[in-house]
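Schema walkthrough. Field components (list of strings):
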Amino acid sequence: MIQVEVLSIQNLERQEKDALLFPAFDLKVYSGEIIAIHSNLNIRMALLQMFLGKAPLGKGEILVKGEKLDKNSHFSSFHIGISFFEQAVYHRLSVKDNLKFFSQVYSSSQSIEEVLNLTQLNPYKNSPVQKLSFSEKRRVHFAKILIENPILYIFEEPDLNVDLETKRVFLNVLEYLAEQGKAVLILTGNMESAITMSKSVYRLNDEGIHLVEIKDESASTVEEEETVPEDEKTTMTVNINKIPTKVNDKIILFDPPEIDYIESNDGQSNVFIKGEAFPSTFTMNELEERLMPFGFFRCHRSYIVNLQKVREVITWTRNSFSLVLDDAKKSTIPLSKTKMAQLKEMLGLK
Amino acid sequence: MTFSWKRIYAIFNKDMKDLSKNYFVSSIIVLPILMAFLYGGMYEMGLELHYMIINLTLASVTAFIQCAVIAEEKEKHTLRGLMLSPASLTEILTGKSLVSIVLTVVTLILCAMITGYEPRNFALIAIAIFISIIFYIALGTILGLLSRTVVEASVIILPVIFLFGFGSLLMVLAEKYPAISFVEYLPNIQIIELAYEVELGLGFVDMWDHFVVLLVWALVASLFAAFVYKKREIDK
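Field assembly_structure (string):
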């Protein structure tokens, strides 16, 4: 399929009061491409407001199919679909009536049956939306944007707090959109879901936009700078098994079995215990080496997981996997394709 | 932007379905029908009573439903989604007005059947009521655009129901206190006077002044609604 440029963001920056939200950045999204932007809530809101023409674009430009977004033209003429996290649909009407209504309003050629199948809403098509669970409602929102049938799809936090079935549905929707040659932009604050949903993940913050490296490399590659001071390291020569973390000025020590997983964020490794993150003084490679004997596994370039806590290995598509932990939050952790083979070997599976 | 009847019909259809499940708003229809039963069974119906029910229908059913369906879209944030769709606010409001008109006409016919009101000149009365409906729709639209929630809408509509629905009582007051004699120019009073003249067998030539007053009310309300609508559109 020929890739056409669908979205082009040029020189876009946003300053709110005295704080710089993000400096000028450029981004292009081509047809058939899925791009995720990981950012905090303020940046996400600012971006959406800019798309909606409710916040000034400043010197920047947003072009969709070569046409500049402009407050004076009606939003619908740009064929952008936005699926908000707090999307509003008609709660008293059934799922099918909602979709029928949107189909008529958007003069859509998309078949309602196909959308119901894709979002697995067929069993609920005659129930009022207000009777559905949160995850099912989110699927109605996905169905709505599929009915709108735009060229550019923007999803805000599509898989936040949803159940596994809905997450799988969403990944199927993404695959379907990529096949149809649509351009997709995902805005999320959750790195794990960004990595699972998209092959190209960008981190947008006050330092600009950065591509997050998610290509697999062998674990031996030195990837992060040594951040631990020399003297602290020498004290570690005594064989302590505890993992030190730093909170403010305190050093907290954790037993390896307590740890659920470790996530690397901008070169900083964070140890997750019962859903709380503690910044570690070690790099990912050091942690991997240290924790290997305790049954930890480097399941992704940016993740180390405690295998004792893994409950389930989920296969989303042929190339995307996740690990579900047994903790209270049922955290999911990305598992890269090459690591999947390694994990299977470790577990004695073929 | 093209004006599409298909989208208006979609909005009309959706609001009809939604209202049939929204008892908080749709139960207002019961009010005039109940009054019709009550008075129809109790008294020999005079023109005054017939028009009290008709005015009540216009104020409660027409204005309130129009106001509530607009306010609800705002309260539930579905209007934001609609504004991003190809449907324009004009189409949305037209679709909603059609809902109010259909429900009003149905209620009026039901009430007239219950109370047994048969005007001597049906066409003239129909025209007068239609002009009034436009006035009440515009009034409901203004209040709907101004209120943020359905509960707010149901409070804001109360003075309208009292003023226009039970307005005939004002005439009694006006006879006592000449200072408020201007109330006779209110649309609900005008339509009663018009109805009296129709019953007397007068023709259009004799009652054009009432039509003019009604038209002015409808026009002023529509212009004001357009003004509020423009202002809201800029706010968004």
